[in-house]
Amino acid sequence: MHQSTPGAVDLVTEARERGQEAYSETCPHYLTLDDTVYGSTFPEWYACCPPMRSAETVAALKDRLAAGAIHTVSSDHSCYDLSQKRERTDDVRYMPHGLPGVETRMPVSFTALVSEAGGSVEDFVEVFSAGPARINAVPRKGAIVEGFDADLVVFDPVKQQTVDGGALHMGTDFSPFEGKTLNGWPAVVVSAGRVVLDGDGFHDPGPVGRFVARNGFTEHRDSLAVPVSTLTL
Question: How far is CA 55 from CA 8, 9, 190, in A?
Fold first, then answer.
């Protein structure tokens, strides 16, 4: 998890070639930000573990993603605000490590994989939704098919928007992607068959969350009777 170097991904690929059930996961910031951010005005914004890597490493990691060697992209969301980040700017050992990223996960991942690395929309759906559901053995998730939960995101792949950390809805006041123009922003969100986000804004359905038990991995994999990357545009 949180692989930030191509060498780590290659080790997982070698394990898979030996027949191991092994998977690679990375995060959006390792696909788009490099270690030059630590020379910026606010280096504490980017304190996370693992740290940012060189631009060459980022490019090689993105190549692995486009080649299908990385199986999931998750946010690793840590919702520190700037006051917390600035409490220990004097000592990286005590500085809060972690980045807010759950709200920007979709456009950052789509931009990195499809707009920049030449991947397909189907590749994006696989690492963003279908793959995580399958690998984590979560039933009724990850595909648009009869009998699965109606948890859907409709996004515009050509919509461009510049990140404004202060305008996001996460419980923080900054974004590590501040000022970046990204493609692929969500337009409509359907949760359990309810439209909770559309052009008119957020429609709060109240506390409707429920626990979803995982299946066993092998049982879940063998039970899937439909292509897990089913996509409707």
Answer: 16, 17, 37
